[in-house]
Amino acid sequence: REIEEDLRAAITREDELCVHYQPQMDGSGGGVIGVEALLRWRHPRRGSLAPAAFVKVAEESGLIGPLTRRVLRDACGVAIAWPGLSVAVNISPVQFRSRTLAAELIAIVRETGARAQQIELEVTESVLLDNDEVVHSTLSALRRAGFRIALDDFGTGYSSLSYLSKFKVDKIKIDRSFIQRLGEADDAAAIVHAVVRLGHAMGLVVTAEGVETGLQHAFLKHAGCNEMQGFLFSEAVPAAALRRLLGRLE
Ligand code: G
Ligand code: G
Ligand code: MN
Ligand code: NA
């Protein structure tokens, strides 16, 4: 496939793939506590591509590993430049089939000189559904190395919830579909309240994604949500623009 060939080439180049960073805010208004790394591809002919257009191709063609290593290296640079921030990196469920994932990620952090304690790995619920020994040992090895684990898009998978007691994670990120329906549908408010309580009862940090309005922000703050991320605060920006953005959000 054409896009696969282009992606293979882009990974070896400096200028096409770039990592943008979206700030994550302290829920009670204490400013920026972290950023999430989000990949962008400036395709020579197709223009700027969002991950939705190429992450699946990367997963199917074995390129997701090299792509993630590149994102993590960049993220480690940001972590070193901003010692007070946590830096989140998305890991594809496909990558958990590899027995060498933990060792690879640990090696990159060591090479760059970043601290794993500053890096958060975002994984989706589907990863934990395969209650399998590889996933279990990978997640334990990563946590032992100091990485924090966040459950991304929480509530959209087949949430059996039993996995929450089988796998130790640090954070849940409530999917933006629930946040977007706050104020429109009573069930969304009930679900958000329940997830915040569930998370806190299990000693987890609870983040809301896709916060776009002041009303959503106020609701989430009142509900006790610990962290928030969304266009209300900022979209993802290039690392070079972070200094100015963080200054503005202080
Ligand atoms: O960045 P957007 O704004 O379009 O992201 C869309 C989706 O792509 C999200 O689900 C996000 O988790 C995923 N995504 C963004 N960057 C990466 C990445 O570096 N690796 C993986 N596996 N997914 C990513
Ligand atoms: O699945 P993942 O959480 O990693 O997705 C991050 C995606 O969400 C990125 O595509 C990012 O651009 C997008 N995003 C971030 N904030 C908002 C928001 O406030 N509203 C919407 N609609 N999308 C957002
Ligand atoms: Mn994410
Ligand atoms: Na998400």
Give me a quick take on this structure.
By secondary structure, this protein is of the alpha/beta class. It has 11 helices and 10 strands.
Explained architecture:
With 250 residues, the protein is of the alpha/beta class. Helix content is 44%, strand content 22%. It is built from eleven helices and ten strands. It has helices at residues 2-12, 55-61, 64-81, 101-112, 125-129, 133-144, 162-166, 176-180, 186-201, 214-223, 242-249; strands spanning 17-26, 32-43, 47-49, 86-90, 119-124, 148-154, 171-174, 205-208, 227-228, 237-238. A hairpin with a 3-residue loop joins strand 2 (32-43) and strand 3 (47-49). The longest helix has 18 residues, at 64-81.
Strand percent estimate? 15-25%
What topology, given as strand order, has the largest sheet?
Answer: 1-2-4-5-6-7-8-9
**What would the principal axes of the Cα set say about the shape?**
globular
Q: What value does the Rg take, in angstroms?
A: 18 Å
- The share of residues in helices is 40-55%
Jot down its keywords:
Diguanylate cyclase (GGDEF)-like protein; binds guanosine-5'-monophosphate; binds sodium ion; alpha/beta; 11 helices; 44% helix; binds manganese (II) ion; 250 residues
Topology:
Elements: H1 2-12, E1 17-26, E2 32-43, E3 47-49, H2 55-61, H3 64-81, E4 86-90, H4 101-112, E5 119-124, H5 125-129, H6 133-144, E6 148-154, H7 162-166, E7 171-174, H8 176-180, H9 186-201, E8 205-208, H10 214-223, E9 227-228, E10 237-238, H11 242-249
Parallel strand pairs: 2-4, 4-5, 5-6, 6-7, 7-8, 8-9
Antiparallel strand pairs: 1-2, 1-9, 1-10, 2-3
Helix pairs in contact: 3-4, 4-6
Manganese (II) ion (MN) is lined by residues 36, 90, 122, 152.
